[in-house]
Amino acid sequence: MNIWREGIVAGVDRESAVCAAFASLTASVAEDLGPDRVVDTLSSECVRLLPIDSMEVFLPGLKLARYPAVVEEGPALESFETGSDVAVKDLSAEISRWPTYVARMVGLGYAAVSALPMRMMEETIGAVTLLSAETEVLSAEDRRLGQALADVATLCLRQQREVSHYRTLSGQLQRALDSRVIIEQAKGVLAERAGISVSTAFQRLRSFARSSNRKLSEVAHGVVKGTVDSEKLLRPRNR
């Protein structure tokens, strides 16, 4: 008897458990521990709330610690490609459909599977497979709950991706700003030392950086810190 059946026998309030599951998925994004945390939370909540014995996740665009990024056959791939759910009551009867997959799952003791797409609007990013040791498919209510959990997990993964993108962009912009500031400082230092215009100082900086195969910001930093020979840098050079 899995955790779900034990909970039913004990009279656990399933509605409260479902609310807690969605809260856990949302928290997995706030914790900022990467996609594995979202997927692990989805997996544990599905096993806790649904009459299944295990589950797998297929997310071809992500590298996950415990799940494959590529599958050659099976209900997950079919659900991902079609964007629809797949329900199989008796896996052993589908040996001609998915020979390698069925052999592996039956060997592990599973008899039935339901696959649900992980989607957001028109985009399907993967699929989950809900596995049972008994030859029975999920009820319509359980499929709806499983799909809702998969949909929320998809939103969480999308949110993580966007947050990661904006953090990367923010870091790039900050580095660009820091470089601009140090370059402006170096231009001022050179202009004052040599009595030249700021424009000429910038030309000398750029020419020196090119001839020495160094980044402009690196040379500018050296000028400000005094680690670059300003006299050598200020000598007129051919562009």
Describe the protein in words.
- This protein is of the alpha+beta class and 239 residues long.
- It has a domain at 172-234: Winged helix-like DNA-binding domain superfamily/Winged helix DNA-binding domain (Arc Repressor Mutant, subunit A), CATH 1.10.10.10.
- It is 59% helix and 11% strand.
- It has nine helices and four strands, in the order αααβαβαββαααα.
- The chain has a four-stranded antiparallel sheet, sandwiched between helices.
- Strand 3 (112-120) and strand 4 (123-132) form a beta hairpin.
- The protein is elongated and about 85 Å long.
- The mean pLDDT is 82.
The CATH topology of the domain at 172-234 turns out to be Arc Repressor Mutant, subunit A
Alpha-carbon distance between the termini?
A: 79 Å
Main beta sheet: 4 strands, antiparallel
The spatial strand order of the largest sheet comes to: 1-4-3-2
- The overall strand count is 4
General form: elongated
Return residue spans where pLDDT drops below 50 for at least 5 consecutive residues.
none
Query: CATH H level of the domain at 172-234: which superfamily?
Result: Winged helix-like DNA-binding domain superfamily/Winged helix DNA-binding domain
Supply the key terms.
single chain, 239 residues, alpha+beta, Arc Repressor Mutant, subunit A, four-stranded antiparallel beta sheet, 9 helices, 4 strands, 59% helix
